[in-house]
Amino acid sequence: MLQEHCKLLAVLKQTGEIVGRKKLQKLIYIAKKLDFPFFERYQFHFYGPYSEELNLRVEEMSHLDFITEIKEKKGGYQQYRYALSDKGADFLALSNYELPETKGILNVLNEQSSRFLELVSTVLYFEDLPRAEVEEKVVTLKAKQNYSQEEINEAYWFIEQLCKKAASAEANE
Amino acid sequence: MSDRFKVLEEEKVFKDPVHRYIHVRDELIWDLIGTKEFQRLRRIRQLGTTYLTFHGAEHTRFNHSLGVYEIVRRMVENLEKKIAWDPEERLVCLAAALLHDIGHGPFSHSFEKVFHTDHEQWTRAIILGNTDVHRVLTSVGGKFPKKVADVIEKTYANKLVVSLISSQIDADRMDYLLRDAFYTGVSYGNFDMERILRVMRPKEDQAVFKHSGMHAVEDYIMSRYQMYWQVYFHPVTRSAEVILSKILHRAKDLYRAGYQFKDQPKHFYTLFSGEITLADYLKLDESVILYYFQEWADEEDPILHDLCQRFMDRRLFKYVECDPGKQMSVWPELLQLFAAIGLEPEYYLVIDSSSDLPYDFYRPGEEEERLPIHLLMPGGDLRELSRESEVVEAISGKKRTDHKLYFPMDFLEDQRTYAEEKQRIIALLKAQEG
């Protein structure tokens, strides 16, 4: 019953709280790219990979009171904080859904800034291209974010670490 | 300059019920329309199972793709009066518009859910792979196919070009709203597209709209809102989608379990095993799928047989509105009762959510990823549409989610067997609606 919703509830249970819609979007995208079983469809948008399906699913869970959504002002824009509610926890328990072993990857992702996750997810989106072309895409498509070469290098290193962790999680399944 | 910039000796036109005429002057476009991959779109309906609700909705991805091309052609013609274009940029726009849906498969929404495929990846594969489309595009230049694929994927450097084909007010949406309204026969999908094109102004990242044209844009937003609830979210169409998805699930599960089909579903083999190639994918269309549904209606497996008969004969599931939060307490009992009367709940008790559908209505959003629609004010400033329009503000904050629970009411109403259990199920389901 509503398995894709349950997966998101399980993510919130594991991470405790996710601050920002952008962070939530990128976190699920990166997890999906690491072969965790998320099936929301993503397209490339203004801030990188974005899923309208995920956006709507989160809205549904908020209407069902399965998650709490706190809206707060942050500089010139609104930011949302998401956490699992008691009702959501009951629903998750009833569904018997369990996330596969993630070796703490979701928490590692949740500790990063949205800006960094935007870069990481963009690099992953273009993973089939040679690195030079990916960097060119980052510079062209993310001109306003003005990512430095150091940040791009860090993103590649971070992805490498994530892949190792994901592989060890898979081996332990 | 490449030969592919050549224009035809005589302009070709297609009669079209939505745009009256679709004009083709470029040899490239004419040749793309003639490719087998593009012709395949004639065998894929634009609205999937909607024809089971609105019988006129038999139009295809072919009609729609030509329509999007025609709108972009008109947009480009207008924009060229205001900005200088590289002639290749014009062809990139037109080719991307024509090919934006080339990767769609039969009933692609359900297909993608069941088999975890993505039509956008197939689009890229068709444009860049070993296809007639690729050969035609390459004749413009070696890098040309990639440019077209990047526009469709929204990763092209020129964001104005991307926004014409994919944004909150783009040629794709304009065509499908007008076309879907026309073919379904509903009266609320119309808006003044000519006026919108006239007030469109190019900016660096996207096209914006002169404030004086705000009411035409409002009409477009209203049309999108109405079509969302009245056509795209129609509960009967969703019932057909539920059955279609369950048929595909069942066939896949049977195949993996080694079930011997009477008529081997060879078109599905690589899809079922998760190893589908581009050549196999291109062989799938709705005539193939419906052929198998017809065949599977005679299969021994009772679930596959029943679901296929239901789909072919339009004996769809009924539904109740449901709140999964409240449903929690009765869910275990419902599952138990369904199993007791011989209905596998996995196939016969299905929650369908609004997030399962690929449509939305306009939301300006906060901390959102979608670029909103901007109005160009008389002083030159840009203002987000819902801040200027009370109509748009009123509908863009509306709740857009719902959940429905689908089940075979005809089976439950047949009280010759398991009468007591069936009555209890019906009572539990009706209680969901309050």
From TrEMBL, chain A:
This is YwgA family protein. The lineage of its organism: Bacteria, Bacillati, Bacillota, Bacilli, Bacillales.
TrEMBL record, chain B:
It holds the Pfam family HD. One of its GO terms (molecular function) is dGTPase activity. Gene3D superfamilies: Hypothetical protein af1432. Residues 61-177 form the HD domain. SUPFAM superfamilies: HD-domain/PDEase-like. GO terms for biological process: dGTP catabolic process. PANTHER family: DEOXYNUCLEOSIDE TRIPHOSPHATE TRIPHOSPHOHYDROLASE (PTHR11373), DEOXYNUCLEOSIDE TRIPHOSPHATE TRIPHOSPHOHYDROLASE SAMHD1 (PTHR11373:SF4). This is HD domain-containing protein. It comes from Evansella caseinilytica.
